[in-house]
Amino acid sequence: MNSFEQMEAVIAQRRAEPQEGSYTCYLFEKGLDKILKKVGEECAETIIAAKNGDKAELVGEINDVFYHMMVMMNECGVTLADVCAEMDVRAQKIGNLKQFHASDHNT
Fold it and tell me: What is the pLDDT of residue 83?
């Protein structure tokens, strides 16, 4: 079992068997809006960490995003297997070049 699978299992367990003082249980108790807010906050913090160029900080923030995304996934009924299956489908498309429209991102 890899780290993502372990995290998924712990999150599922916390949802099924709430434990007092658990941050994961707190998120589930507050509901989807709170979970989504945390996903957004962690994404913003990840962007800032990347911009600051601090690798250790960036790695920590990426882990925070992964954790909150996995809580969101559980709340929404999406499994790691679902995401991996889609990733496998997309991996088959690697090398298929797309034509992109030129656009002015300054406007």
Answer: 96
13, 22 Cβ separation under 8 angstroms:
no
Domains of the chain from N-terminus onward: 3-91 (1.10.287.1080)
The CA dihedral of 72, 78, 80, 86, to the nearest 10 degrees, is: -120
Q: Which two tokens stand for residue 23?
A: 């941050």
pLDDT tens string 55-78: 999 999 999 999 999 999 999 999
Q: Which residues lie below 8 Å from residue 35, measured CB to CB, with a gap of 6+? A: 27, 28, 68, 71, 72, 75
* Contact criterion met (CB below 8 Å) for 51 and 63: no
Q: Judging by beta carbons within 10 Å of its beta carbon (0-12, 13-18, 19+), is residue 78 exposed, middle or buried?
A: middle
Give all strands (DSSP E) within the chain, no chain letters. none
